[in-house]
Amino acid sequence: MSRMIADCRRFESDNNCSLTMIGEEQELINAAAQHAVSAHGHQDTPELREQLRGLLEPEDSYIAGTRQPEPFPA
Ligand SMILES: [Zn+2]
User: Fold this and answer.
1) How far apart are CA 74 and CA 71, in angstroms?
2) CB count, 10 Å around CB of 28?
3) Which residues contact 18 (CB under 8 A, 6 or more apart)?
4) 39: CA distance to ligand 1 center in Å?
């Protein structure tokens, strides 16, 4: 099973978060949900997890360094 990326650099955030997580999808959803709660003040809900799932990117699209952030999708 291929790994996926959840990349906080991709989105604008209050704390300019630079965290990038890579892992298999279910691990990554769990880790990203915990991070969204602890670092970004989200509520860990099925809706949040569904949204996170839609934001994952393939591992081989990883780009090192900085990334131009875009607004977080509402
Ligand atoms: Zn973050």
Assistant:
1) 9
2) 20
3) 8, 9
4) 6
55 neighbors 6 (Cβ within 8 angstroms):
yes
22, 7 in Cβ contact below 8 A? no
> 1 CA to middle of ligand 1, Å?
25
How do the pLDDT tens digits run along the chain, 74 residues long?
789 999 999 999 888 999 999 999 999 999 999 999 999 999 999 999 999 999 999 999 999 999 999 988 76
**Residue 51, token pair as written in the block:** 């949204």
d(CA 61, CA 16): 21
Output the pTM of the full model. 0.89
